[in-house]
Design brief:
The complex is a heterodimer of chains A (about 180) and B (about 475). Chain A is α+β, with helices and mostly antiparallel strands and about 180 residues long. In chain A, about 25% of the residues lie in helices and about 35% in strands. Chain A is built from five helices and nine strands, in the order H-E-E-E-E-H-H-E-E-E-E-E-H-H. In chain A, strands 1, 2, 3, 4, 5, 6, 7, 8 and 9 form a nine-stranded antiparallel sheet that branches. In chain A, helix 1 packs across helix 4. Chain A is globular, with a radius of gyration of 15 Å. Chain A starts with a helix and ends with a helix. Chain B is mainly beta and about 475 residues long. In chain B, the strands form nine sheets. Chain B has a five-stranded antiparallel sheet with strand order 1-29-28-27-26. In chain B, strands 3, 4, 7, 8 and 9 form a five-stranded antiparallel sheet that branches. The chains are: A alpha+beta (about 180), B mainly beta (about 475). At the A-B interface, helix 2 and strand 5 of A face strand 30 of B.
Chain lengths: ~180, ~475
């Protein structure tokens, strides 16, 4: 996580700009990740639509889906366990058939704490994808992210979390959690 | 000249909008808003945030048991004036034999914790004489203890409850159902190894001192060891007992609701290992709702005669389930949560037939503060109102009385919105750089007793209000004029 924060700070320092084309600081693999906004690809459900991004560069082909889920969290405990990540992180939007590959880990995005977990996705076309579900909380509200991609899951997770730490995304996340 | 006209017009518009804004807000000292319902008595419930009320006829007394949420950020453990001690919110026990003078008997503390994380939100009561192996001199109160346990207390002396048993080790609890004639209880629990916060633990509580676990139950995908998407969590079931042989489970609260119709006998006697096949075995059908709405309360009203269909050769009576969503977010920050009526006569093809909501414009409820939308209905099946009238807690719109004799066309016939008091807590929404708060009634739950009194309780600490119907609303229920 410290590495993620470092990347984020570096990204800000390097002038990541605009929602449509974020640029991250050099990742350990010495490549750069660009997140380009794409249309929200999922049908309407009970939650307001979120935002979707596709990665070019270090995590080419990875897609990131983020949204706020207000009043959907234990106000005191926050994201308490991996089961909660399974339930809320929107991995099921990508495919309802997924299985966890390992225990999750604690993560934070800004001041919000929660958990991330990696999954193996069984796609409708029979393909296998890797995915990462992230859920962090702010009091009774959740902010969730789901990432899918074919590359190294650790690198994709780092790149996604670093992206979510950018100032532009933090501002949007705050507004989304406020219902604005 | 034109600019003066414009200026004057702006002043008029400003004055009107200010007046309209003022009209939206409740103020201390203003009378309640009411139609065909009138206040009989009140109790402040020690300014504790209230959830489920249950009214029990005990001997010649009528006792109200009222569950509470945890405390608030400002007052985590209110002081009980009867003991002088700060006590985590739990269960209020109130003698309502004389509804015009309710007498607060006892506060039974609950789990420490704020809001949904503490307290003792839910309560059911069975007489020991009705339970198969109960002590005939006892009256048993089943309550949740925060998120960690279910408890049974002997409340034969309601001012001095005695703990009988405790079922603990849970990660959550919610609105359970207890059949007083068989002792079978459908406890809404969070079993630690299940993937959902809330599922069902079926127990035989016919001998409350010796609970017997029957099985765990939920939707396939929620059970331990399953993978993939996790179905919406349970909110609560209602059973029709061995005669009706059905249990109606409501999943979801304000989103992705599901009404699940379950064969009670198969549930109790079928294979118990929580495998997907075993969980499907007792299910008769499901009615998935819009992703916008949840199923907080699923209240069955079977074999209802519908006057409009009286001359039809088939389908004169219908099996109806009233489904009530729960509004969660303040100031209309979500899709409207309301009331739905499902015709489940053909059980494998349940169909939504009608709906009801309070018209927002009738009270500018989105501007008043707090939640606006439905939360729950009365769950008493006493003849006085059953299949004739339903009472819906509608947060800042108070309680609404519905004529449901024709469930295809439910009609509001009365309402009551209590006045706020100095105890009424604020409700806030985030705004840029902070929060904006308003004070409004938040009628959370409603219950009725066999005498026809209506009990409403407030989530924003305004206490208990006991009501009765007046005017034409009494005629709907067949009550004598008052």
């Amino acid at each position: 996580m410290r590495r993620g924060a470092t990347i984020a700070l570096a990204a800000i320092a390097l002038g990541a700009s605009g929602v449509g084309a974020y640029q991250l600081a050099p990742a350990p693999v010495e490549q750069t990740a660009h997140w380009r906004e794409i249309a929200w690809p999922f049908p309407r459900d009970g939650w307001p639509m979120g935002r979707a991004f596709r990665c070019d560069g270090a995590c080419t082909g990875a897609e990131l889906y983020v949204r706020a889920k207000r009043s959907f969290c234990n106000c005191d405990r926050g994201v308490a366990d991996d089961d909660e990540v399974d339930r809320v992180a929107d991995v099921d939007l990508i495919s309802p058939r997924f299985s966890a590959m390992a225990l999750g880990e604690e993560v934070s995005i800004g001041d919000m704490r929660g958990r991330a977990r990696r999954y193996d996705l069984d796609m409708p076309d029979g393909a296998r994808h890797a995915a990462i579900g992230v859920a962090v909380s702010r009091r009774c509200d959740l902010f969730v992210a789901a990432v899918r991609g074919r590359g190294d899951a650790s690198a994709v997770q780092r790149a996604a979390l670093a992206f979510l730490e950018t100032q532009e995304m933090k501002i949007w996340v705050t507004a989304a959690l406020d219902g604005r | 000249m034109i600019s003066r006209v414009h200026f004057a017009a702006c002043l008029v518009i400003f004055a009107c909008s200010t007046a309209a804004q003022a009209q939206k807000q409740q103020v201390i000292g203003a009378p309640p808003e009411a139609s065909n319902m009138k206040l009989v008595g009140t109790n402040d419930l020690q300014a504790r945030s209230a959830y489920q009320p249950t009214i029990q006829h005990q001997g010649d007394r009528w006792i109200a048991y009222i569950g509470h949420h945890g405390g608030t950020d400002d007052v985590p453990s209110p002081v009980n004036p009867m003991t002088g001690q700060a006590e985590p919110n739990g269960t209020s026990i109130v003698d309502v034999t004389d509804p015009s003078h309710p007498k607060y008997l006892r506060h039974l503390p609950g789990q420490e914790g704020k809001y949904e994380s503490g307290g003792a939100q839910m309560v059911r009561v069975c007489d020991g004489k009705s339970l198969p192996k109960g002590d005939p001199n006892a009256v048993y109160m089943l309550r949740t203890f925060g998120s960690e346990a279910h408890e049974i207390w002997n409340v034969a002396d309601p001012a001095s409850p005695v703990l009988v048993t405790r079922i603990g080790g849970l990660k959550d609890t919610h609105k359970s159902w207890w059949e007083c004639d068989t002792g079978i209880a459908y406890l809404v629990s969070g079993a630690p190894d299940w993937r959902t916060r809330r599922m069902t633990q079926v127990y035989d509580l016919g001998d409350p001192a010796h609970p017997q676990k029957i099985r765990d139950f939920g939707l396939p995908g929620q059970e331990p060891g399953s993978t993939g998407a996790v179905p919406t969590e349970l909110h609560g079931p209602i059973s029709t007992g061995p005669n009706g042989n059905r249990v109606y489970f409501g999943y979801g609260t304000n989103k992705g609701g599901i009404l699940q119709i379950v064969d009670r006998e198969k549930l109790l006697t079928g294979p118990k290992e929580p495998t997907p096949d075993n969980l499907r075995y007792p299910e008769i059908s499901r009615l998935p709702m819009s992703a916008f709405n949840g199923a907080h309360t699923t209240f069955p009203m079977l074999d209802m005669p519908v006057a409009e269909f009286a001359e039809d050769k088939d389908g004169k009576t219908r099996d109806i389930v009233m489904i009530v969503d729960e509004a969660i977010l303040n100031e209309c920050s979500e899709a409207r949560q309301m009331v739905w009526f499902a015709d489940v006569t053909t059980e494998t093809r349940p169909m939504m037939i009608s709906s009801y909501t309070v018209p927002e414009a009738s009270g500018q409820f989105c501007q008043r503060g707090g939640r606006f939308g439905s939360h729950s209905s009365n769950e008493s099946m006493a003849p006085v109102y059953y299949k004739k009238m339903a009472f819906i807690a509608f947060f800042n719109a108070g309680v609404r009385a519905l004529d449901i004799r024709d469930p295809y066309h439910p009609k509001e016939v009365g309402y009551f919105i209590p006045s706020i008091t100095s105890a009424t807590d604020k409700r806030c929404i985030p705004i840029e750089g902070g929060a904006r708060c308003k004070v409004a009634i938040q009628t959370n739950n409603v219950e009725t007793d066999d005498r026809g009194y209506i009990y409403i309780v407030d989530r924003a600490n305004t206490g208990l209000h006991i009501l009765e119907l007046t005017g034409p609303a009494r005629a709907v229920a067949g009550l004598p004029k008052n």
